[in-house]
Give the backbone structure.
Amino acid sequence: MRTEDILAAIETGLWRWDTADGTVTIDAEAARLLGLSEAGTYGEAVVRACYHQADWIEVRSVVGLAVAEDTVAESRLRIVDEHGTVLRTVRTRSRPHVPEGRTVEQVVLLGTLQEVAEPIPGTSVRTPVTGDWRRSREAFLLDAGRALAEARSTEEVLRVAGSLSMPGFSPDGLAVFGVEGDRLLLVGHHGHEVRDEEPFADMPLQTEYPAAEVARTGQAIYLPTPEDYARRFPMFWPLARTFGRSSWAFLPLIVSGRTMGAWMAAFRDPVGFSPDERAVLTTVARMLAQALARAGAAETERELSLGLQRAMMPSLGKSPPGITVAARYIPTGGGLQVGGDWYDMIPLPNGRVALIIGDVQGHDVRAAGLMGQLRIALRAYASEGHRPDAVLARASRFLAGLTEGYAHEGDDDDEASAPRFATCLYAEVDPADGSLDIARAGHPDPVVISMDGTAVIRQTAGGMPLGIETDADYPTTQVVLEPGETIMLCTDGLIETGGHDLMTGWVRLRPVLETPGADPEALAEALVETVHGPTSHYTTGPLAERHEDDIALVLLRRDTPATLAKVPPRRAAVAIAQAEPERISVARQLLRELLHDWADPEQVDSAVLMLSEMATNVLVHTDGNALMVAEVTGERGERRLRVEVADNSDELPHKRRPGEMASSGRGLLLMEMLADDWGVDPRGAGKSIWYELYESAEPEELTARPIPFEQI
């Protein structure tokens, strides 16, 4: 007996498709199935006309996948006549072969063609005939698993479940039920109207409803027809019939062997629930249960995180009269949204207000716990009326003892139990005169923003971070805010987020800070948007691999009286002690930042040179400290700079004529040549030497005021 006779007896045709020359060779049985007159070799276009257009596209993709994976290509195809009427459905199975000397695009396929029997009554009327059922099912389950795995909330899981397009029998109504005690609660639904869920929202678990029975028994219930529903659950059939569905599937949602609820899939078209269809529904139910469990755990974790954050980050409350305060806290991404950053505002017994901002090392729950304890300790010390330096000194001893106790309780190799430190800035604010007494423990310096938008890093004295030394010293620096000025206190997360260091982070923030007359709330939002908004992706710093950090931000503005001039003056003051000559560089930097938009850069250099000379003379020729006060007044382009350096010595400076080899004696000569005006004012105790520079829109040439050679 020949193979051809056997294949003809079982109505199986043979064909050969050469994709290189576009020809298809078929036997008599294959010709009959395709609707062609006789066996032979045909052009690809002739055979293509026998297939449904969508199926031809499908078979090309299946063949391409089979060539890539070196597997058998299997597809279902609809055969149509010249009018597009479907005559029959056939299954084709072929093996791609690449002849020697050809590329993978020039394959030859050898295969069979066999008619597919009509679906039996009761099966889905929308069973696909394009592509292979098994391949479509596997592809669907892979896509569904990926989509459900990416859902992060119960709402997202339900939305993904409602959008799943199952191969051949997609439901158009979904509902998820959860078990709480002896009650069955509706978690969510899709494909129903808003008020449709009311009869099913809450019911006893013993109710004779399909979902309740599934939740009790853990066994799926399939109802292919309305008659099946009415016969098995007559109590709820009058409610179910109003939705106009034809078939229902109720499946248990099982996680770790425990039935957590039930899933209902309702179909408008009849579904017979064949073994393949039941296998798909069961697999989707398992993935749905896992996704709901993950989403529930994530939502619980987020709620815990938000609750912990709300408990540890109290609101600032109402700002005292004369000042306006705004604050923000942004936790780092991932995990529990808590960390070691915090801020606080505390009313003091003397009528003033304490502003505190700090950062405990780490971003975990232990850092948040230490932060809460440290914040309470700081509030207690501040409420007792201690000065800023005493408050930080006591807090450092408290944190050192606290973290040492953690280290003794934990394993020596456990990094989580290692001692931790905290940076902190404590400012005692007097709303009446705008003064702030600041003590700093390893924390970033504050930034002062004048009313015209000039932002200056106000360098302050500081000590070691809290918790490192039990007897640390924290010197106090006084900063005075003029009406309309704002001071910014922040943790290093605001500066360094996005891979920035302290320098590049300051460059990124400065244009935002320099907004004239900005409201603290609007400025706080703009700063957060700069760091975490869409534009932050274009301003990444040089440390691209740096881990992100929490952000705490406090902005305090001294309110502006109605009588204030349109252009307020800029002022800055720095004290320079005999024992701290390095403070001269702080004064120079402060003056440069005060004159950042001065028209003539050479005048700025001259101003810094004269300041350095004046301050150095005080430290060299007197026994006292120096106080530098700088003020910029007037409209831009016509402003005046006045710098005063005061000391407590009554000895007045004298103009000298130093020789060319002398190392000193040129201070007054420099001021005479570089300043527009200068002088020395005796005071009751000491003196003040000052100079003034007038801004000009047209900078003077270097030759305008030459220095004689013998005076250099």
